[in-house]
């Protein structure tokens, strides 16, 4: 049964092939008839249409892909920041807490008018940047919604240490509306959130050139900054010499303020860094000494085996055959 | 006290870290003219000249962003340790 069906299938294939041949033959033979006599106008229309289509599609393709594509340009990528020798990035160094204090001052006086720092509570500033009294005083300067009163209304109360730093805008929409559509990012984790971290932010703050390089088109309302991907940034240069007055008498140059505020932002992003490094050192010291002890114990325990001597003491020569 | 003030003023004016204005742009400007950035500066200047010529002839066909990047990269690289040495 199977063999027969197989045979039949080959036969049908052959038949098909023959049939196809026959069809073409027949078509060829019939085309010489009167039915498909060449109609010049129709041919011309067909030729014109296909030519138009071909030329049109080529033109369209050129329009799409023909001109030089300005993609993946260095401007689009942004200038990669130079690596600066940050002290707090060294293995055995902590944050410079004087710098953190200055940086917090810069944040408050300069950045805070547009950028929020909403993940930082006042309590975390205590001990690392401010004293308790200073932090309390700072918190009390702002109002926060309190518990409902007897009538169920929420009254505003002065801030406490447990409150978070206030944001300059109510929400993202308000921030965009106030800044010409651009959203000033929250700075709590910005050092971790940007490629290049501290170096990038320092370069961004200090890297505004006097004027953009020749031929650059800067969109209206934007500023040229080589470090910002795309080079067009909505934030204008904000740090100028002597913008703030440091309480410790440090010269408030642009670079000094940028360095301080970047170090402060690094603290904001990872306040646990000092403790983490200390813990890391403890772990290294303890594990190293435990390892050394384990080596000693192993050698002690194996000493009898390692120091034994195997000696073959052959029997004395004798004439007796065994 | 007057004597002490005069003395501390003299000390301040002599010690380099208190008198120097800690400023990156000035340092970078110096680095742009340094020999190691000569090639980048040459290319940038050349580009600026070319583009300004194009602008006079009606519309710049290119910009000097790439050349500027190379120059800025060289200058900041050279200036970084010097700036850090002056900052607190």
From TrEMBL, chain A:
Cofactor: heme c
GO CC annotation, single: mitochondrial inner membrane
Transmembrane region(s): none
Principal place of residence: mitochondrion
GO BP annotations listed: mitochondrial electron transport, ubiquinol to cytochrome c
InterPro entries named in the record: Cyt_c-like_dom (IPR009056), Cyt_c-like_dom_sf (IPR036909), Cyt_c1 (IPR002326), Cyt_c1_TM_anchor_C (IPR021157)
Entry keyword annotation includes RNA-binding: no
Sample GO molecular function, one term: quinol-cytochrome-c reductase activity
Compartments (UniProt record): Mitochondrion inner membrane
UniProt keyword annotation of Transmembrane present: yes
Name by which UniProt lists this protein: quinol--cytochrome-c reductase
Native source organism of the sequence: Clonostachys chloroleuca
Automatic annotation (TrEMBL), chain B:
Keywords annotated in UniProt: Electron transport, Membrane, Mitochondrion, Mitochondrion inner membrane, Respiratory chain, Transport
One Gene Ontology CC term in the entry: mitochondrial inner membrane
Domain Ubiquinol-cytochrome C reductase hinge intervals: 25-88
Record's bilayer topology term: Peripheral membrane protein
Annotated compartments: Mitochondrion inner membrane
A GO biological-process term: mitochondrial electron transport, ubiquinol to cytochrome c
Alphabetized SUPFAM superfamilies for the sequence: Non-heme 11 kDa protein of cytochrome bc1 complex (Ubiquinol-cytochrome c reductase)
Keyword presence, Electron transport: yes
Coiled-coil blocks: none
Family: Belongs to the UQCRH/QCR6 family.
Identification of the protein by name: Cytochrome b-c1 complex subunit 6, mitochondrial
The organism's taxonomic lineage, starting at the top: Eukaryota, Fungi, Dikarya, Ascomycota, Pezizomycotina
């Amino acid at each position: 049964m199977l063999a027969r069906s197989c045979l039949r299938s080959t036969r049908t294939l052959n038949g098909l092939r023959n049939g196809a041949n026959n069809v073409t033959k027949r078509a060829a033979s019939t085309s010489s008839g009167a039915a498909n006599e060449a109609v010049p106008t129709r041919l011309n229309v067909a030729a014109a249409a296909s030519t138009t289509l071909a030329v049109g599609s080529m033109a369209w393709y050129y329009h799409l892909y023909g001109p030089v594509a300005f993609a993946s340009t260095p401007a689009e990528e942004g200038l990669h920041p130079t690596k600066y020798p940050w002290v707090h990035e060294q293995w055995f160094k902590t944050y410079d807490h004087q710098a953190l204090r200055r940086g917090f001052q810069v944040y408050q006086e300069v950045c805070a008018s547009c950028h929020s720092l909403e993940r930082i509570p006042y309590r975390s500033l205590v001990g690392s940047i401010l004293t308790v009294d200073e932090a309390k005083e700072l918190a009390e300067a702002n109002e926060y919604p309190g518990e409902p009163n007897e009538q169920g209304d929420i009254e505003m109360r002065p801030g406490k240490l447990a409150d978070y730093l206030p944001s300059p805008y109510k929400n993202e929409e308000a921030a965009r509306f106030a800044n010409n559509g651009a959203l000033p990012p929250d700075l709590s984790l910005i050092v971790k959130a940007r490629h290049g971290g501290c170096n990038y932010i320092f370069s961004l703050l200090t890297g505004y050139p006097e004027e953009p390089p020749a031929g650059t088109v800067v969109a209206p309302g934007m500023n040229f900054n080589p470090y910002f991907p795309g080079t067009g940034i909505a934030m204008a240069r904000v740090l100028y010499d002597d913008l703030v007055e440091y309480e410790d008498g440090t010269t408030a140059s642009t670079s000094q303020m940028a360095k301080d505020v970047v170090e402060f932002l690094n603290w904001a992003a990872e306040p646990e860094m000092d403790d983490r490094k200390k813990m890391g050192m403890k772990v290294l010291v303890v594990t190293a000494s435990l390892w050394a002890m384990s080596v000693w114990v192993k050698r002690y325990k194996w000493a009898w085996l390692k120091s034994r001597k195997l000696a073959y003491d052959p029997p004395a020569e004798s004439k007796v055959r065994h | 006290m007057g004597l002490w003030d005069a003395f501390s003023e003299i000390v301040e004016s002599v010690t380099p870290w208190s008198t120097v204005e800690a400023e990156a742009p000035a340092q970078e400007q110096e680095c742009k003219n340094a020999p190691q950035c000569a090639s980048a500066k040459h290319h940038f200047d050349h580009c600026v000249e070319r583009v300004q010529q194009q602008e006079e002839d009606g519309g710049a066909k290119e910009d000097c962003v790439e050349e500027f990047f190379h120059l800025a990269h060289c200058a900041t690289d050279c200036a970084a340790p010097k700036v850090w040495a002056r900052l607190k």
